[in-house]
Amino acid sequence: MTELSQTTPTASQPAVFVKSSGQGKRMKAMRPFFISVVAIVGGLLLWQLASMYTSSLFLPSVSITWAAALELIGDGTLQQSILASSGRILAGWGAGVLIGVPLGIFMGRFELIRQLLDPYIEFFRFIPPIAFVTLAVIWLGPGELSKIALIFYTTVFIVTLNTIAGVQAVNPLRIRAASSLGAGQWQILTTVILPSTVPFMVTGARIAMGNSFLTVVSAEIVSAREGLGALIWTARNFSRTEWVFVGIITLGLLGYLFDRVLRIATRKLLKRYL
């Protein structure tokens, strides 16, 4: 039932009844969603208007791109491409996170390990994965392993560097306090350093996820028959610009979905550390 609250009247102001309900809060919560919808619709309208003044080969319209998407969905090409690219990204990214997190923790905590591995980290992190595509195919073959290895290469350095930054950002007073209470090196690592580093790990994993999409497209263009990168390359060979747009839009939507799932999962599972 809606409640009515009466303000205190004064000599010059009559009593005013104010309706208090959850409707205002709900509208305020939905406001970002409505703004996003308006922005998307506005972008689509601008795209449609721009396509009216140029050829479909240069800029296909929204309707042509939508028809191409339905065509690719109808014959199963788009679904197969999404599954192929998603599997490669999850495998390479997951392996990179599993290796990068402990590597970053030990490099950040123990100076000797950092001094031994830092030259390699600093050297290889500046070499883009696309430079290793040919070598990956030669060494690992044109199958899935070469593409997963390239995504792993992309991920591991980003996660490692962010984790190192997180370890080095831990307040030394907390470490000394734990040590004065009798905690050993392993206890300090697991109860003080690791929980404090979680936000840095999550940030590194999210950044690495975005870079994994860049890498998978490059790898699939060079040596893949299925995947969103292969779809975009095939579209180029057949002069189907609308297929290119479908592939690009799908990559953006898929990346948005992966990032949202990662954010929700970390918020649920690691809420106490974030």
Write structural notes for this entry:
The chain has 274 residues and is mostly helical. The protein has helices at 23-51, 62-74, 77-109, 111-124, 133-140, 144-168, 172-180, 185-223, 228-237, 241-269, and strands at 3-6, 17-20. The protein has a two-stranded antiparallel sheet with strand order 1-2. Helix 3 (77-109) runs parallel beside helix 6, helix 3 packs across helix 9 (228-237) and helix 5 crosses helix 6 (144-168). The longest helix is centred in the C-terminal third of the chain and has 39 residues, at 185-223. The protein is flat and about 70 Å long.
Q: Report how far the terminal alpha carbons are from each other.
A: 38 Å
> What is the multimeric organization of the chains shown?
single chain
Overall pLDDT level:
87
Order of helices and strands: EEHHHHHHHHHH
Low-confidence stretches: 1-9, 15-20
Q: What is the gyration radius calculated from CA atoms?
A: 26 Å
List keywords for this structure.
3% strand, 10 helices, 274 residues, single chain, mainly alpha, 2 strands, two-stranded antiparallel ribbon, disordered N terminus
Question: Helices and strands in order, then pairings?
Answer:
Layout: E1 3-6, E2 17-20, H1 23-51, H2 62-74, H3 77-109, H4 111-124, H5 133-140, H6 144-168, H7 172-180, H8 185-223, H9 228-237, H10 241-269
Helix pairs in contact: 2-10, 3-4, 3-6, 3-8, 3-9, 5-6, 6-8, 7-8, 8-9, 8-10, 9-10
